[in-house]
Amino acid sequence: MVGFPSILEGIKDLKKGHILQLLERAEDLKSGSPARLPLQKSLAVATSFLEHSTRTKHSFAMAIKRLQGFHIDFQAENSSLKKGESLEQTLLTLHYQGIDICIIRTKQSHLLDEFKEHPPIKIINGGDGSNQHPTQALLDLYTLSEQFGGVESLKGKTVAIVGDCRHSRVTHSLMDLLPQFGINVILSGPKEFIPQNIEDETNKFQVSNDIDETIKMSDALYLLRIQSERHTKGFEDTLTSYKDSWGIDFEKLRKNEKSLPIYHPGPANIGVEVSQEIVDSEIWMAHEQVRNSVYMRMAIIEAMITNEDQKIGSIYNKVPGDICAGNSRLNTK
Length: 333
Ligand code: ASP
What we know:
Elements: E1 7-8, H1 16-30, E2 44-49, H2 55-66, E3 70-73, H3 87-96, E4 101-106, E5 122-128, H4 134-147, E6 158-162, H5 169-177, E7 184-188, E8 205-208, H6 211-217, E9 220-223, H7 239-246, H8 250-255, E10 262-263, H9 276-279, H10 286-305, H11 321-325
Parallel strand pairs: 1-5, 2-3, 2-4, 4-5, 6-7, 6-9, 7-8, 9-10
Helix pairs in contact: 1-4, 1-10, 2-10, 4-5, 4-10
The site of aspartic acid (ASP) has 8 residues, from helix 5.
């Protein structure tokens, strides 16, 4: 896709037109459309997950396979990163070995910022700390649009993100994405789980600390796991009292006379933020999100591989000749 970024760090890297094309393309791929990749070369993609993952890593692996690409799972633990090599040099190595795209997940937020100006390789963010998880948000938008009869039908609908919004990278990506399509977003949870400085954005987001009010106002709920690994201090509530106040079960839905689809990026802690009964029911959309994740990630890989960006690799390939001429490493004659 011409103009598609070579580093997809967050939703803000994409124009609305890119997102609409991704939604369309994911739908085509789901209906069996063949891959659209450059003919001259086979696709090679590496995943480098420096934090645990089940869904994201394997759905990328499936997407690569369905695009008839070659997948390398780069093991950072056994790599020269452990000998002190920088991430940039590691990525350059992958690039010169012929890898087209590297999908990276890191514990640290904003780790990819430094590569944006001179991409050593094309990169898709598979989740960085509590910052962004753009591919998750895009597949969520796709699943929502499928459920509600197209992206246009989402205009005016209300989606409540319930739980640990503050520490969730998925929430931050959804906050950047959903309002672009006219979706009202409610951030709902205990006060300590609401993002900081949200007061500055009250024109864009509604905040609710009351689950009954949230359920009544919503057309869909998007539940989150408590992100304990990202908490700097312990969670004040116990899991049992969290479940009682915030866990979604049929009793709370009935009390508010609501039946609505329930989304979750996974992994879900069943018995905490959601009941087993809901997970076993038809309103649980998480399996559909997982199914759709493969098609949306195929569409994203395709879009990046065909963006016609030639400026990938070492900085020495990108600077004008006169600067190179002054470089002693090149003056070997
Ligand atoms: N799988 C999502 C993520 O990587 C959500 C989560 O872990 O709770 O951010």
